[in-house]
Amino acid sequence: MPFPEFDSKGMEYRFLGNSGTLVSVIAYGSWDTVGGQVKDSSIIEPCLQEAWKCGINFFDTSESYAEGQAEIEIGHALKKFGWPRKDYVLSTKVFEGGHGPNDIGLHRKKIIESVNASLKRLQLDYADIVYAHRPDYLTAMLETVRAFSDLVAQGRIHYWGTSEWSAFEIGEALSVARENHLVAPIVEQPQYSIISRQRVEGEYAPLFYKYKYGATVWYVLLSSLADRSYD
């Protein structure tokens, strides 16, 4: 285990998809909190420290959360704490960030420039996971897969994944990667709760079984029945 000192806390770790990387079963997310509803950034640091003390080694953010401010605050805290980079897993997401004509989608220009910008905000040399935050119906799948694959080869990211993609779209990405000898996605980040179960338990089931595709779910506690559309 990466955190033997946390054994007494009872934190459980699981493999990220079909990889050998271990992540805590509870992650520290930053949507609608870091840089968003929580305006006082001084509150974020003790929250992160408490999560760390409990054995959480998985921290999640996105270029779109509070228009990049979440990444800035997470990055500032991580640098201040000085935690060993090898001991935590950091994920972020790209798809929509900025207001220009090329600031949305999963084309090569968008993916590479967004990852570079995210790493600058996070003050990190690499991200462990970058999710394609939504499917892009206008860009060829090969272009998307190749861009992520190149970032892995460059050491800018370790893994890439999908978020709110259909099983068909994920299957296409896996096939394109296999046929072109590229790096395939390994994990999906879907909404999943007691009243939103069909996609995870039904649609994705073949992916979990056949490819050992991973899942890092959001909205497990379903914060609001009236607002369930965005993560």
Automatic annotation (TrEMBL):
Matching entries from Gene3D superfamilies are given as: NADP-dependent oxidoreductase domain
Q: Does the keyword Ribonucleoprotein apply?
A: no
User: One Pfam family name from the record?
Assistant: Aldo_ket_red
Alphabetized, the UniProt keywords read: NADP, Oxidoreductase
- Tell me yes or no: is Oxidoreductase among this UniProt entry's keywords: yes
**Can you tell which superkingdom this protein's organism belongs to?**
Eukaryota
Q: Where is the NADP-dependent oxidoreductase domain?
A: 26-226
> In which family does this protein belong, per the annotation?
Belongs to the shaker potassium channel beta subunit family.
Its protein name is NADP-dependent oxidoreductase domain-containing protein
Native species: Exophiala sideris
